[in-house]
Amino acid sequence: MTNQANDPTSPPAGDLAGKHIVLGLSGGIACYKAAELCRALIKQGATVQVVMTEAAEQFITAVTMQALSGRTVYTSQWDSREDNNMAHINLSREADAILVAPCSADFMAKLLHGRADDLLSLMCLARPIDKVPLLLAPAMNREMWAHPATQRNMVQLDADGATILGVGSGFQACGETGDGRMLEPDELLEDIIAFFAPKVLAGQQVLVTAGPTYEAIDPVRGITNLSSGKMGFAIARAAREAGAQVTLVAGPVSLPTPRGVTRLDVKSAQNMLKASVECAKTASIFIATAAVADWRPASPAAQKIKKDGSGSAPQLSFTENPDILATIAQSARAQRGELFCVGFAAESHDLQANAQAKRVRKGVPLLVGNIGPATFGQDDNALVLVDEQGTADFPRAPKLELARQLIADIARRTRAAKQKP
Ligand code: CTP
Which of 142, 263, 293, 388 could pair covalently with 257 via S-S, beta carbons 3.0-4.6 A apart? Predict the structure, then answer.
């Protein structure tokens, strides 16, 4: 037998490795999404025990869920497979979380009243409330969702300690359009991974700039660079996982917004400066990952520049762009220690020396160096952290993994800075 942990060819352990999740399905058309969610949880290393209500079985079969989870599904509180015939106790005691997806309006109402007339509701009531979190992914028609009874139930369930994962908006199976769809499996997965992450940045407001900027030459042409924004987006996601309120000021990239992150789309360096300076007024941490264009055309043409037939190229003159990081690092809040600023350096050579010089020039306590051509557009990266004391290496790893390490490091630094007299 191969030792998985030592086998370099085995897939990575996944963000939910070691977690055992009871996936409860109540009745709703969104049960079809639960099949994919089950797969996604398992792909991230979780073990999944599916429990279905009688109504859920009208929408999807236990056979499907058994095949996807690799475990027989529980549908009845009278299941005699359990030696003590107490499936509700046994299944809830071994769970790291109970996730009800889809959670119907009826099932929410049941939970609210502490009713226990089927295995899933019985299990939710019988779970050790301080050890086994209950996460709910509501799914229902928009009128049912908007109904005061459902909204009231949601508030009370939250007060009773459940975590409501929210709903999506859009076209519904009934043909109507509005709020109440179950979140997509990848959205739920991101929320569940975030739920389990240590909340080392709870109470912090984090501002991240990411991606390239675009500097117009004329209405149809411009200057930009190869930054994909992936590192900055990964950092925004990791900061949100760590419990921070995150604002992501993004240059033109087509990446999806990380869950729970407020995104402001900008184009030029000047737009990015304006948005960032505004957000920096309340932020406690600023991480500048954007590859801001150093120069912009001095006077962009109002109309498309045409060839004049002479064969000669138009003459462009350039103006230096504002330095967003240096501007914010020099602000009174940063100088008073209320805003911890982190810069990035994309270099092509002499990484450590260039990064250290840039840190001093930008006036920031921490600068993260990487080799530009080795990171732009890639899914992995290697980082060098440079501070007043020296340097530390983060070896090559997926960008999300590095982002989590960096966020943990920044959390330690900001905690230590607070404790200083
Ligand atoms: N940065 C910024 N505004 C600029 C230029 C850079 O906020 N106008 C930030 C970047 O987001 C990054 C850091 O400053 O955090 C360093 O960016 P980099 O492009 O590596 O350095 P430059 O300042 O442009 O210096 P050089 O081109 O000389 O290497």
Answer: 263
Q: How far is the CA of 294 from the centre of ligand 1 (A)?
A: 7
User: Which of 103, 174, 279, 341 is an active site residue?
Assistant: 174
The structure tokens listed for 360 are 């001093």
Chosen domain end from 152, 179, 196: 196
Question: What pLDDT was estimated at residue 417?
Answer: 82
The fraction of the chain above a pLDDT of 70, given in percent, is 97
Last residue of a domain, one of 138, 169, 196: 196
DSSP 75: -
What are the structure tokens assigned to 283, written together? 């932020």
Angstrom distances, CA of residue 219 to CA of 250, 272, 317: 21, 19, 17
Are residues 255 and 131 located together in one domain of the fold? Answer: no
Helix (H) or strand (E) holding 276: helix 269-279
Amino acid (1-letter code) at residue 287: I
pTM: 0.93
Strand runs labelled E in 130-193: 134-138, 163-164, 168-171, 177-181
The closest residue, in CA terms, to atom 9 on ligand 1 is 325
Q: From ligand 1's centre to the CA of 246, what distance in Å?
A: 21
